[in-house]
Amino acid sequence: MTRKRTALVTGGSRGIGLAIARELAAAGHRVAVTCRGAAPEGLYAVRCDVTDTAEVDAAFSAVERDLGPVEILVANAGITADGPYAVMKEERFTTVIDTNLTGAHRCARRAVRGMVRGRWGRIVFIGSEVALSGNAGQANYAAAKAGLIGLSRSLARELGRRGITVNTVTPGLIRTDMTAGLPACHVEELLARVPVPRVGRPEDVAAAVRWLTDESTGYVTGAVVPVDGGLGMGH
């Protein structure tokens, strides 16, 4: 039987993050989400901007006070700011890095304290298939997501002796608000390359996260788990 743990999902108010939060709640965990807008119904929510170290610390302190030490962290919060690399302003590049990569680092570093004391933990970074394949117009996003893989594997080596696993899930084309604005021709082009010919669902990603955070997966660490219908096969 799965032991009830305290889980924190960053960016958990919608899309993939919300699906993950609901999946972990269904598994019996005490689930908190960070959000910057409206709090999702039925879940413990705390305001947090992951680019602000003080806000990250305050969010963790609130969760620890009300739900207990964070034993499962899903670093999902992220943004896009696409554009041609030759004319991409430095602020557009660094803002994505600060949110998607450094923001995940801030949360992981804060979570590790309690996990080390408890000698148990599950950290899952939500990356992207483009971290491995690249994508025109997304140099900043791809760089940030690729950085998560290096971060997760380094932490996996450092923390494995403490009972803490660290893995990265790399979604492909998933139906969310972030992808809703993609041109139909671009979606069709992507689907033509996917062995499973459909757009993924947030629930597909959530199922992989639930598995990686289970008691039974303590020997799975440093892994990159694709949830992309086979789009990135071979990377």
UniProtKB/TrEMBL annotation:
Domain of life from the UniProt record: Bacteria
Pfam families named in the record: adh_short_C2 (PF13561)
UniProt domain Ketoreductase: residue ranges: 5-172
Annotated InterPro entries: KR_dom (IPR057326), NAD(P)-bd_dom_sf (IPR036291), Sc_DH/Rdtase_CS (IPR020904), SDR (IPR050259), SDR_fam (IPR002347)
NCBIfam families in UniProt: PRK12826.1-2
Family the UniProt entry places it in: Belongs to the short-chain dehydrogenases/reductases (SDR) family.
Protein name per its UniProtKB record: 3-oxoacyl-ACP reductase FabG
Organism: Streptomyces composti
